[in-house]
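Lecture 7 notes: from sequence to structure.
We start with the chain below.
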Amino acid sequence: MTADDLARNRDNFCYRHPDRQSFVLCQRCLRTICPECQTPAAVGVICPECLRDQQKAASPAQRKAERRWSRPRALTVADSRPVVTYAIIGITVLVYLLTVIPGIGGAIEDAFAFYAPLIYPGLTGYFEPWRLLTAALVHGGFVHLALNMLALWMIGRSLEPLLGRWRFLTLYVLSALGGSVAVALLSFTTPVVGASGAIFGLFGALLVIGRHIGANIGGIAIVLGINLVIGFLPGFNISWQAHVGGLLVGLLVAFIFTRTRAPRQRALQIALLVAVTAVLVALLFVPALFPALVLR
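Predicted structure tokens for the same chain:
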């Protein structure tokens, strides 16, 4: 199909603005809609007419949740693309490509992987705290990378427009940190790589926020449960500690977001997020103060 064929095909243009080309479909009626006509839904986007139909059919509880969660129209941004999601995927893929280059790949992976003893100078003589976060950038192979980035792409497209870019980035980073902290506490001498902790944090946040806005979260809960159980099965070589740590932090951060949504609560929201970060950092002192608890 040529460019002219695409231009002549009316299905490639917004049904409400025939002069605007788009390839995004409403998830309910499957009509083409431009960015101006797109409203983020629990999965994908919907058009204005489907949004009105959905609001008419909503229960009183759903309407209340929608009023509490929805940001004022004046605060919405024209560009609702999940830019942070794409940026994280791009950086992670770039790091993976660097790790497969002979001669430097191994050194990059060794420098980025999380190995808890290397952040305790009193135990090993090394202090490399960046590993708490950089472990989310390196992966054990292409399949590992592909599965994590696919999950990030699928969740980020729905979650980032709901939260906003900075909140989404904060959620991702804190979830990754939570996964590393859990590994340090529960599997001290096990080296780990991968963004699974951060991904499980996004899963947890999607559960909380979906429940808050009245969305059907049954499917998400099933997928999350299956992936969580797989981490405990022998033979898969998966760090369930990172999964649990990231999930718990994601649930907590999302709960903070849902309870401090009003603009006047922004200072409280920031203070609570700083408190979560402080608690995670404080937990890292446990192996240093009580090495017998982790070196067993």
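Points to note: The chain has two domains: 3-57, 83-294. Confidence is low (pLDDT under 50) at residues 71-78.
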